[in-house]
Amino acid sequence: MPYLDLSNPDNYVHLCQLFFAAHPTRRQRLDAGGAPPVSGSEERISLDIVREMAAWGRDRHLITRKDAARIVEHAEGLARNADTLSAFHDPASIVSLTPRVLGTPPRLQPSVLMTEIIHWLTCRAPTVKEELVLTLPAAIERTQSLASAIEQSEVMQARARQLLAWLQEQDER
After folding, report:
1. Distance between CA 84 and CA 123 in Å, rounded?
2. What stretch of H or E contains 53?
3. Where are the domains of the chain?
4. What is residue 32's DSSP assignment?
5. Separation of alpha carbons 122 and 117, rounded Å
6. 136-149 vs 114-122: helix crossing angle, rounded to 10
7. What is the mean pLDDT of the segment spanning 144-167?
């Protein structure tokens, strides 16, 4: 019978304490900041350390096989999300400014796709197949209206403000 019941979140902390007490060099590297972050918490634990900790806890009958697999699966998911979200720090990584012939009279001017704006705001590629092409001033106006319409998510509001600032900066160039 395993020693730690991981249905209680405090036991995750206890497992980490036991592991790092048994591996002081790992703790020293962790304290020195040598490992990349796996989650948004203050502690930085690499995916390799999580795998090693799960195997160590399993070998010592501290946790079940199922709990060990769940710990590793959760850490892998956090690492994937961290990799995915790292691409979403700069609007230019998602929203492209492309010169297109638009307007009346037709002239070459910078434009943005609405799907890319939605992709930036939601951190997900939209499923819409139709592309709405916006001029830079129209994109700024649409982003302002979206920013004021978003009420639930502070993260999306912040992303909308960041995108708006980037679009305005591009318009000034």
Report:
1. 9
2. helix 47-59
3. 10-86, 91-172
4. T
5. 9
6. 40
7. 83
